[in-house]
Structures are given as C-alpha cells and as structure tokens.
C-alpha cells in the first residue's frame, strides 16, 4: 500500500518535472520529493526486514497489464532488502541533486526523468510476475537511456547512449526467453507458478545462461560491459551514482531472484561458470580502471570490478547449494549481499564526490585536477574514506565483505570435483589481484585529484560545494565506517533476508559480538571493533612518538621553497606516470599498450613527445568483429533489393522447391 | 455410371494429357505455338473437369468445364494471339535457360511432386492421389516456365498454365466448393486483362516486350 502510493508519487513528480521544468526552484522541489519518497521506501524496507517472518505481506494483484495475467506485486525479504539498497543511495543522490540538479547540462531533460528512473527500479523489485518485471526493467533501461542522452549535443554522449540502448535491448531480449522457458507451455508467468515448474535439464541450463547474459549485461559482466564505462559517466553525476551504485544492483537482484528463488536446482557447474566469469570481470574491470584518465570513467570501470566480485560470491553460493552445503551457500550469499550494500554505498559516495569536483572545477580529467583537499575539505575527506572503503581497507566496510567472500572461497574445495579444486584457488588469486589493483587504482584516483598541487587554473579556483551536497557525501562516508565496524549486525540482518532462499539460518557470529567468525571459531574470525581500536591506538602512539622524537629535531632545507622542491606543477606525479609501472607489466599483454618517445635531436628546439596507444581487447576482438560481420551480411542482403523480376520469381521458386524437398525427405 | 477402374483410367489419361501439354509448353520455340499449346492444355483441362462432373455426379463441374473451354481454351488464346499480332512482336521464344535443361528440370519437378504427394495422401482414394500429383506437376511446370522465359507473353502463359494446375487439383478433389473454382477462374481473367494493359504500356514506353528493358528502366542494369 505504502509502496504503491510512493511509486505513484514518483510518476506524479516526473509529470511535475515535465510541466514546470522552466522554473529553477522546481528542480530542487522534485529532488526533495524524491528524497522523501526514497526515505519512506527505505523505512518500509527496513521495517519489513526487521519483522521478517512475523507478518507475510500478501501478493497484490492489480487489474492492469495483460488481460489474462493481470499485474502481480509482492514484497518478500529479498525485495525488501533490495528496496533498502536501492532507495538509500536514491535518497542520497536526491539530496545531492537538490543542489546539483539545476546546474547540470540539460537539466530540464534530467529532472523529469529522474523520478521515473527510480520508479522503474523499484518496480522491478516488487514485481511478482514476469510481465511486470520485464516492463519495469525496460522502464528502468529506457529512462536511464534518456538520462544518458540528456547532454545530447555531445557526440560522445550520443554514442554512449546508442551503445547502451543496443546492449539494454540485447539484455532484455535474453531475459525474455529465460522467463518464457520458465513459464513453459501454459504461459504461467506468475513467479509463484514458476517456482513450482519443473524444467528439463536443457531448458534449466538455458534459463541460467540467458539470465546470466541478460542480468550480466545490465550489471556489466565482461565481455558485456562495454556500454557501462561509456554510459555511466555520460549521465549527470548524481544519475551516474544511481546507475553505477544502484542499477547494477537491480541486475544482481534479478539474477538472485531467478537463480535462487525461481529456479531451485542449478548445477554446481553453472555456479563455477558464474564464479570464473566474475573473477575475469573483477580483474579486467580493475585493470581498465587503473589506466583511465577520466575520473568518472575510472569509477565506472571500478563498478565493473565490484560486480565481478559480487558474481564470484553468487557463483560460489550456487555451487555450494547444489552440493548440499547450505551453510556455506548462506555464507557466500551473505557475503555477496554484504558487498552489494557496500558497493551501493561507496560507489554512490565516490560518484557524488566526482560530481562535486565536476561542479566545482568543471573538470573530470585527472591531469587537470589536484590539490583539492585543501580547497574542498569535506569532499576530499569523504572521497578518501570512500576510496579506502572500496580498496577494502579495514576497518571500513569493503574489507568485511571481501573478507567474507574470501572465507567462503577458502571453503570452495568442499565441492569435491577437480574443477572446483583447481578453480577456486585461481579465482581466489584473481580476486586478491583485483583487490590489490583496486587499492592502487584508488590511491591514484584520490592522490591525483585531491593531493599534490592543482594542475589547472580551474582546480586552483575550486571552492567547496553547498551544504546539502556535502551532507549527501558525509552520510555514506559515516555509514562506510559504521557498516565496517559493526559487521555482525549487518550479517545478522542479511542472514534473515536469505533464510527463505537457502533454508538455513546462518550462524552470524560463533564467538559472539564483536567477533565475526563465519565458518568456525578456529578457521577465521575478524573483529572490526578490535581493528579500529588497535588502529586508533597505533596511530596515536605513532603520532606521539613522531612528534616527540621527530618534530623536535632541527631540520635543514633549501630556503624559500616551503617544502615544495619542484616549482613546476607538471613535474608532479601525473595520472599516467603513476600507472606506468603496472601498465608496462600488464598493459602490454592485456591492452597492447605501446609507448613511443620522440626525442628531438640535439640542438633542435622542438619539444619531446610521449605518445601512448592502448587498445580495448574486448571491443576490438569481439564487438568490432561482430559489427564487421553484421555489416558484411547486410551488404550481401542489400543486393537482394536490386534483382530482376525473373530472379525474384526464381528465388521464390527455389524456396518452394527446397521446402518441398524438405517435406519429401522428412516423410520418408 | 462407369466402373471405378474405368473412371480412374480415363481421369488419369486426361490428367496426363494436361501434364503433357505442360511439357509441350516448355519446348515450343514460337510464341504462337506456345499460345496454341496452352489452348490445347485448357481444352484438356475442360475435358478433365467434364469427366469429373460425370463421374462424381456433380453438375456444377460442368460449369467449370464450360468456363475452362470458353475462356481459357478460346478467348484467352485468341486475345493473346491478337495482342501478339497487334504489337508486331518477335515470334521467337527467348529463353533464359536452354530447352534441354528446362525439360530435365521439368522431369525432376514431376518426380518431386509424385514423391511428395503420394505418401501425404496415403489415406485418400487413389483417384484423388494421382490427380493431385498430376496437378502439382502442372503447377510447378507453369512456375518453371515463368522463370525460364524472358518474354512477357510467355510469362503470362506460364502463369495461366500454373492456374490450370490449380483448377485440375480443384476438380479432382471431391466436394471442393464451386465458388472457389469460379473465383479462381475470374481472378485469372482479371489478371489477363491487367497483363494486356501492361503489355501496351510497356510496349508504348520501350518498343519491346523484352523485360530486360524494364530492368534497365529500374536502374539495375547499365
């Protein structure tokens, strides 16, 4: 009831935005409305999660949609959990939008669509039949497509929107037969009927494959990720935050709904496949991210990496479940959902930070920024917290979820098959590699943007953003710390969410608060509170020691350079130079990176030139080839348009004869 | 009422005559000869219809036979001959595929239709079965004629022969509604008139009925 009226209110706000979008105050009003509505949904979701099992919200059937199907809605634990995951960042981005939304390019095209985007995402969550699910899914895709296209004068945004539209259509095109297969001959499109359906192994496998491709293309799995780093940065920053932090989670929700709820019996082999694809995605995503020169593109690629990590855990959960290891499956699923929450939080925070930087300096290129920590202290500090969290540093939240995923990975050999025995260590190494790269990547991002000295006049002139935007970044930063320090509360909450899916109650903390020990008290346990206390203690001790012994010493330094030995800003570490060592090691293999240095001959006054060329293996290897193939076929088919009348008749005749031959052969 | 064997043999004979005329159409080298062969085929068709009317005791088939005889056997060939004379056309048939290969293809098509029809209609009476196979062969031969002849008049004759195959199938099947046959006959008549008008138009424009000119006109050939 509450949700229905809130969703209706989203539509009304969209309408309001369309009608009155010439008034600048109204943009703020629409965003404020969205914030309140999101907050209501968060409240509802939290209430439902906390009261799980005590009252079952009945399925709601509304008399619209397909005439023989009607529209089914239902809010179960999983939906309620994702309702929180979606709408909390939604509320934050709306809060950010109050100050930011009126000033983005094409604001009049952004504000009306923003509530519609939120509407679509929430619709996917509460859908209880395939029709409502897919319509909401497309609603979400199309409204976000229009948001990407908001700055349509920019050719890159147009290209991004085009690629996005094609990939979104492709994804839905895969989900459609997946649901169709589950519905079977009778067209039982309600989720309740799908849960009872029995499929042949072939159909069941196809469902998993199609769902993986369909949801994976929306989430950004390699090699279906190509649209993501184009489309996410092209939208206004608060929308980028929604798309990256939230829309990918809707895709994860879709996959969990299909794999763990609608389909009960998935072979562990599929879990293995999902895990390996996730590992590939994680490593490739973070490698891409490391070499980006654009802050928002970097963040988008980092989303690809995190989606990969989530999929590793999902694959593990599926494999464990098929093997009957329900507790381990629950552990992996809890880890996956924990990372979902975390990524939604810190990716929103980081994109909002990039939006604040963009609003203040008008720059997204790393090499035009620098030294912003002094000029924008709140943005800088929150961005640093977000960067530390996404790099999985304890005691922040990113560490806990990745640690949990590692804990469940270590149990992978429970599934006694050589593929798992060999696959799990490889995936573990890949994930460790990705985690290390993520650290490097965000040291680079935060360091180049916020530390050092400004590399451009715009960065020099930067000022802190308005209070509402600061608040929108401060809240998730605090939560990053909170969710990291009190992990047991989070895992307990998630455990109740997934209980209906795996059928076991996960022992949240074997040793009791504050120790998180998911597998057994001896195998591995983590207490964030202890880590925090230790970290604070060690820091204080170090500071005291350094100040006592180090600061008092007399130091000699060159006069007049105020601690900056280099006077030229360009002599600082640049984004490219920071990434160079890793580019030399990995870039030449993965991206065909080529560096050429042109030195002028002695006496020549021309500047030396350094050029860097990298190719995208996925785009050039897969999509360019696909494009070539489509074009070649289209060229051939095009000739059909210019045949003579007799040849057309001949074609028809030949078709008829071939079909008759087929009939003749088949009846023998 | 003749005996069943007698009815079957006669129907078979007349149907085979229609088919033979279909083959004869393929190897004619003169346009007037094509038209006369077509006329003969239509008369054979009329005979087939009349025989079926007698055998099945279905008087409406006599009407079909009459239509076939008057329109297809007499009026259409006369009109086509008049057209050919009026337009002063080349009297040779211009082929896209040689006579020999066309005949071989025709034999192949007959074999195909027999292979196809006989197992499908295993349950039907033997009379219908043979008849259907023959009708289908005639139809395919008409199509073959349409695609292997360049001249517009011969293409029209091919189309008419195809239609003869349809009528042959229709009269052979017991209980085919009369209205179907009538409507097919009339549609062919309308097609004939349309083709006639088109001939004049094409001729006015290009001084020939060779379709190659039409192709040049569409910009497909320089």
Verbal overview:
The complex is a heterodimer of chains A (668) and B (222). Chain A is mainly α and 668 residues long. Among the domains of chain A are: 271-520, no CATH class; 575-613, no CATH class; 618-666. Chain A is 70% helix and 2% strand. Chain A has 25 helices and 4 strands. In chain A, strand 1 and strand 2 form a beta hairpin. Chain B has one domain (4-217). Helix content of chain B is 81%, strand content 0%. Chain B is an all-alpha fold and 222 residues long. The mean pLDDT of chain B is 79. Chain B has helices at 4-27, 31-56, 60-87, 99-120, 126-148, 152-172, 178-206, 211-217.
Sum this structure up briefly.
Chain A is mainly α and 668 residues long.
Straight-line distance between termini of chain A: 62 Å
Fraction in beta strands of chain A: under 5%
Task: Quickly count the helices of chain B.
Answer: 8
Strand element count of chain A: 4
Quick tags:
heterodimer; A: 668 residues; mainly alpha; two-stranded antiparallel sheet; 25 helices; globular; B: 222 residues; 8 helices; 81% helix
Topology:
The complex is a heterodimer of chains A (668) and B (222).
Chain A: H1 2-19, H2 24-50, E1 60-62, E2 71-73, H3 77-100, H4 107-110, H5 113-126, H6 130-148, H7 155-183, H8 191-196, H9 201-219, H10 228-234, H11 237-262, H12 268-290, H13 295-323, H14 326-361, H15 372-375, H16 377-390, H17 397-410, H18 418-450, H19 457-460, H20 467-485, H21 487-502, H22 528-550, H23 575-590, E3 594-598, E4 609-613, H24 617-638, H25 645-666
Helix pairs in contact in A: 1-2, 1-5, 2-3, 3-5, 3-11, 3-14, 3-20, 3-21, 5-6, 5-11, 6-7, 7-9, 7-10, 9-11, 10-11, 10-13, 11-13, 11-14, 12-13, 12-18, 13-14, 13-17, 13-18, 14-16, 14-17, 14-20, 14-21, 16-18, 16-20, 17-20
Chain B: H1 4-27, H2 31-56, H3 60-87, H4 99-120, H5 126-148, H6 152-172, H7 178-206, H8 211-217
């Amino acid at each position: 009831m509450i949700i229905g009226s809130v969703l209706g209110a989203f539509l009304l706000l969209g309408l309001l935005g369309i009608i009155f979008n010439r008034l600048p105050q109204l943009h703020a009003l629409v965003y404020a409305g969205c914030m309140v509505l999101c907050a209501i949904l968060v409240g509802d979701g939290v209430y439902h999660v906390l009261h799980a099992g005590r009252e079952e919200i009945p399925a709601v059937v509304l008399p619209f949609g397909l005439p023989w199907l009607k529209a089914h809605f239902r809010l179960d634990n999983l939906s309620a959990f994702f309702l929180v995951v979606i709408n909390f960042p939604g509320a934050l981005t709306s809060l950010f939008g109050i100050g930011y939304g009126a000033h983005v390019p094409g604001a009049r095209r952004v504000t009306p669509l923003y509530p519609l985007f939120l509407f679509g995402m929430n619709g996917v969550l509460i859908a209880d039949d395939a029709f409502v699910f897919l319509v909401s899914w497309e609603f979400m895709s199309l409204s976000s497509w229009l948001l990407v296209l908001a700055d349509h004068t920019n050719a890159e945004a147009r290209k991004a929107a085009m690629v996005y539209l094609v990939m979104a259509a492709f994804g839905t095109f895969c989900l459609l037969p997946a649901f169709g297969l589950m519905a079977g001959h009778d067209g039982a499109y309600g989720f309740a009927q799908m849960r009872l359906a029995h499929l042949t192994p072939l159909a069941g496998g196809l469902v998993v494959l199609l769902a993986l491709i369909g949801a994976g293309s929306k989430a950004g799995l390699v090699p279906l990720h190509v649209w993501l780093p184009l489309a996410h940065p092209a939208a206004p920053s608060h929308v980028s935050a929604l798309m990256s932090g939230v829309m990918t989670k809707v895709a994860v929700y879709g996959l969990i709904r299909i794999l763990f709820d609608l389909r009960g019996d998935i072979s562990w082999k599929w879990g293995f496949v999902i895990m390996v694809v996730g590992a590939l995605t994680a490593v490739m995503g973070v490698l891409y991210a490391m070499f980006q020169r654009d802050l928002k593109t970097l963040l988008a690629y980092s989303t690809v990496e995190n989606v990969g990590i989530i999929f590793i855990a999902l694959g593990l959960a599926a494999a464990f479940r098929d093997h009957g290891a329900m507790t381990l499956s629950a552990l992996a699923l809890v880890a996956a959902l924990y990372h979902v929450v975390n990524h939604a939080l810190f990716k929103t925070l980081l994109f909002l930070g990039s939006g604040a930087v963009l609003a203040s300096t008008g720059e997204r290129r790393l090499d035009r920024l620098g030294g912003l920590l002094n000029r924008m202290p709140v943005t800088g500090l929150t961005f640093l917290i977000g960067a530390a969290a996404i790099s999985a540093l304890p005691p922040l939240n990113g560490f806990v979820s990745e640690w949990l995923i590692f804990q469940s990975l270590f149990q992978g050999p429970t599934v006694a098959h050589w593929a798992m025995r060999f696959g799990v260590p490889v995936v573990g190494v890949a994930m460790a590699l990705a985690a290390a790269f993520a650290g490097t990547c965000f040291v680079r991002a935060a360091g180049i943007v916020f530390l050092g000295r400004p590399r451009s006049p715009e960065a020099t002139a930067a000022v802190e953003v308005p209070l509402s935007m600061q608040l929108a970044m401060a809240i998730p930063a605090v939560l990053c710390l909170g969710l990291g320090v009190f992990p047991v509360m989070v895992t307990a909450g998630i455990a109740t969410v997934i209980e209906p899916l795996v059928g076991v109650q996960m022992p949240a903390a074997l040793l009791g608060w504050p120790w998180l020990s998911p597998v057994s008290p001896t195998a591995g346990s983590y207490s964030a509170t202890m880590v925090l206390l230790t970290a604070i203690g060690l820091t204080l001790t170090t500071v005291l020691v350094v100040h006592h012994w180090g600061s008092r010493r007399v130091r000699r330094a060159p006069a007049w350079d105020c601690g900056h030995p280099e006077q030229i800003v360009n002599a600082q570490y640049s984004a490219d130079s920071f990434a160079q060592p890793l580019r030399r090691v990995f870039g030449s293999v993965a991206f065909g990176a080529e560096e050429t240095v042109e030195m002028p001959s002695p006496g020549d006054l021309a500047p030396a030139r350094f050029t860097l060329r990298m190719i995208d293996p996925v785009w050039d290897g897969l999509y360019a080839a696909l494009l070539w193939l489509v074009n070649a076929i289209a060229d051939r088919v095009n000739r059909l348009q210019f045949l003579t009348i007799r040849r057309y008749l001949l074609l028809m005749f030949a078709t008829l004869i071939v079909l008759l031959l087929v009939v003749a052969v088949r009846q023998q | 009422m003749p005996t069943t064997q007698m009815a079957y043999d006669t129907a078979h004979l007349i149907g085979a005559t229609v088919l033979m005329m279909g083959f004869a159409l393929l190897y004619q080298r003169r346009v007037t000869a094509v038209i006369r062969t077509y006329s003969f085929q239509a008369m054979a068709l009329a005979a087939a219809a009349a025989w079926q009317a007698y055998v099945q005791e279905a008087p409406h088939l006599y009407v079909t036979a009459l239509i076939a005889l008057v329109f297809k056997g007499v009026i259409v060939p006369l009109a086509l001959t008049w057209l050919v004379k009026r337009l002063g056309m080349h009297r040779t048939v211009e082929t896209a595929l040689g006579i020999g290969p066309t005949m071989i293809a025709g034999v192949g098509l007959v074999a195909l239709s027999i292979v196809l029809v006989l197992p499908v209609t295993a349950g039907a009476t033997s009379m219908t079965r043979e008849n259907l196979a023959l009708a289908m062969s005639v139809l395919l031969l008409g199509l073959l004629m349409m695609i292997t002849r360049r001249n517009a008049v011969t293409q029209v004759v091919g189309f008419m022969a195809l239609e003869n195959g349809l009528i042959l199938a229709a009269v052979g099947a017991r209980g085919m509604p009369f209205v179907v046959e009538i409507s097919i006959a009339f549609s062919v008549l309308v097609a004939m008139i349309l083709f006639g008008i088109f001939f004049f138009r094409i001729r006015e424009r290009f001084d020939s009925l060779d379709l190659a000119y039409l192709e040049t006109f569409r910009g497909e050939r320089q």
